Amino acid sequence: MPYEDSPNYVDETPGTKFYCSCGESKNKPYCDGSHDRLKTGKSPTQCVIETAKRYGICDCGTTKNPPFCDGSHTKKA
């Protein structure tokens, strides 16, 4: 899967968002349905954003706090 070793930073507005968790979306950090088309076995991470601000969305696939980056990409071997 084409994960990256850095987060995607987005200026979010309040509302329900669906973030890519398979790494295949062409519209990262948002889900574009690639997980279904490519049968990755993963589903998007649904998240309710309550506060408008800049967020770091995980794109390495190893965060312990999905969909938000927790710095796990810096600890990968």
Summarize the entry for a quick read.
By secondary structure, the protein is mostly beta strands.
Walk me through the structure.
This protein has 77 residues and is mainly β. The protein has one domain (8-63). 5% of the residues lie in helices and 26% in strands. The chain is built from 1 helix and 4 strands, in the order ββαββ. A two-stranded antiparallel ribbon has the order 1-4. The longest helix has 4 residues, at 34-37. The radius of gyration is 12 Å and the shape is globular. The two termini are 17 Å apart. The mean pLDDT is 94.
Taking Cα atoms only, what radius of gyration do you get, to the nearest Å?
Answer: 12 Å
Uncertain runs are none
Mean pLDDT: 94
The number of helical runs is 1
Question: Quick one: overall form?
Answer: globular
List keywords for this structure.
single chain, 77 residues, mainly beta, two-stranded antiparallel sheet, 1 helix, 5% helix, 26% strand, globular
Describe how the helices and strands are arranged.
Layout: E1 8-12, E2 15-19, H1 34-37, E3 45-49, E4 53-57
Antiparallel strand pairs: 1-4, 2-3
